[in-house]
């Protein structure tokens, strides 16, 4: 039985992807720092093919423990590591707190890098395995008002591209998802220097949300296919078009954007 370990599995994209792969008959390991979220997701999945693992992705020792526990349950298989856990921080970069800045960097990139590095032996031992990282449309062009978040997602994009080159000869496929705005708990985060949440800022800007189910379908397609980066949603596709064909206009747009 094929097996996927999903970080950030307690809610949002992680929950939707766990449901999608479970529906395909896979064994699913759910990892998250939120024990209540883990239990809520697990209640939606087949009990005999689901395990939960409370962890903080910023701690390499916890990664080692969870990977070993999941491998013991899955007969050593790790067909997919879905490196998905992430946090958001919006608003003016000059007003973001240092503690919030550290958290975004540590969860969004350090946690992803730890996951990739420590899962490597398990992926290498599983024929046809895949490392799937959640990047973002903010990794297409640096997004004003989301500077810290955007920077970490560019780092995830760079890691994905580098490991795609390094690990291809070992039979490990490396992919990323680049979703636009998804209406998940991440958007409940307050915007620095504002009374708004990130969700309210997106709505005020007239931008659309992409359903988590669409992201889950694209995650399945990414694991099955050969595309390195998968754009998800109209915002991501428009941003990619503008970055390639209208860079001057996009630059001017970012200079005008104020998320307050």
TrEMBL record:
**Protein name (database record):** SDR family oxidoreductase
Q: Which organism is it from?
A: Sphingomonas citri
Which key words tag this protein in UniProt?
Oxidoreductase
Q: Which NCBIfam families match?
A: PRK08267.1
Do you know which Gene3D superfamilies this protein is assigned to?
NAD(P)-binding Rossmann-like Domain
Q: Which family does it belong to?
A: Belongs to the short-chain dehydrogenases/reductases (SDR) family.
């Amino acid at each position: 039985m094929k097996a996927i370990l999903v970080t950030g599995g307690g809610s949002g994209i992680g929950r939707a992807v766990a449901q999608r792969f479970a529906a395909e008959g896979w064994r699913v390991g759910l990892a998250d720092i939120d024990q209540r979220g883990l239990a809520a997701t697990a209640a939606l999945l087949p009990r005999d093919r689901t395990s939960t693992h409370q962890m903080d992705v910023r701690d390499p020792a916890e990664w080692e423990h969870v990977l070993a526990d999941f491998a013991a349950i899955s007969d050593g298989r790790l067909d997919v590591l879905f490196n998905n856990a992430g946090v958001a921080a919006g608003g003016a970069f000059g007003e973001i707190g240092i503690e919030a800045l550290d958290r975004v960097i540590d969860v969004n990139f350090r946690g992803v890098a730890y996951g990739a590095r420590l899962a490597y032996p398990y992926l290498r031992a599983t024929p046809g395995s895949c490392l799937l990282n959640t990047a973002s449309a903010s990794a297409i062009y640096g997004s004003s008002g989301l500077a810290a978040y955007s920077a970490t997602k560019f780092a995830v994009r760079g890691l994905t591209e580098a490991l795609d080159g390094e690990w291809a000869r070992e039979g490990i496929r490396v992919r990323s998802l680049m979703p636009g705005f998804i209406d998940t708990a991440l958007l409940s985060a307050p915007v620095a220097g504002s009374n708004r949440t990130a969700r309210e800022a997106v709505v005020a800007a007239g931008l659309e949300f992409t359903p988590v189910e669409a992201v889950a379908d694209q995650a399945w397609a990414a694991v099955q296919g050969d595309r390195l980066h998968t754009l998800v949603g109209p915002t991501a596709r428009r941003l990619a078009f503008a970055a390639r064909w209208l860079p001057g206009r996009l630059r001017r747009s970012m200079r005008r954007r104020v998320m307050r």
